[in-house]
Amino acid sequence: MQSIIHSWHLVFICFSFLATISKAQTNEFTESKNYEGSSDLLNLQYHMGPILTSPINLYIIWYGHWNPTHKSTIRDFLYSLSSSSTPSPSVYNWWQTIRLYTDQTGSNITESISLMGEFIDWEYSHGKYLTRLSIQSVIKNSISVRYKPLPLNYKNGLYLVLTSNDVQVQDFCRAVCGFHYFTFPSVVGVTLPYAWVGNSGTQCPGVCAYPFAWPKYSGMPSGNKDIMGAPNGDPGIEGMISVIAHELAEVSTNPLVNAWYAGNDPSAPDEIADLCVGVFGTGAGGGFVGQVYKDKKGNGYNLNGVRGRRFLVQWVWDPVRKSCFGPNAIP
Ligand SMILES: *[C@@H]1O[C@H](CO)[C@@H](O)[C@H](O)[C@H]1NC(C)=O
User: Fold this and answer.
1) Range of the domain at 46
2) How many folded domains does the chain comprise?
3) How far, in Å, are 76, 123, 184 from residue 69 at the CA level?
4) Cα(109) to centroid(ligand 1), Å
């Protein structure tokens, strides 16, 4: 049990965030824990396990109470991943960096991510407080209900559990904003890669929806002053988009926790998005998110998506450039 708990894959946004805060306050730019600059010292390695090279069939489980507008923002982000016709720099361009990762056979991460099914768990099947393990039971429920269950797609299914802002999840806000892992046959029947991301909007937007909200103790101005506006209108959802992107990048390159990660300890790995938390554009570091764009209303974004949508998504580690990278990089 202990080892199970230790091997969850977490987004340690809090940690890098505390680092960001202290840096901002002391003007200390030397100890940046992000790798925006090129680094040959970083020991990102392939550990011989499988990666997601087949077209991904994505299934969403909407857990709790969801607003249709928020759902369509998230769906549009997911559609944007495989939409090559959106103007650059796009979410599609962003995914091309993840495609640079290969497995033992030389196969790249897939280009194709399709939203193939959605399940609405509006009755909070496992309550309003979920443990990490009970998220697997939420998935089990979604594939075994009588009325319109999700398919059990063990070939190329990827399950994404999204919890509404009134749902508490173990370690949410305190240590994590999302995580990815794989299901256990004893709970779900098979081993399936999955990810969970929570809406932090009412619980901890300053932690999980940065930079759309400031953390409580950051010494930053309160109210809306100097907070970056959310391009789709809701900080909690906007924060989820970047965390969803983070988890999709990592679950694709490290689905069974034995493929791409840095560090020698598989139970506490640095995966390809962990290395770039808080980096959204060129020059990021020291409390600065990097150079991003502003829309007409002054809201921040760095990527274009389908239907004229704009999103702010963190960068990921580029194995060829050996640095964090995103398509909005200024050469
Ligand atoms: C596949 O990965 C290799 C190695 O990173 C890269 O050179 C190649 O461009 C990638 N192919 C695609 C289609 O991204």
Assistant:
1) 2-325
2) 1
3) 11, 20, 33
4) 9
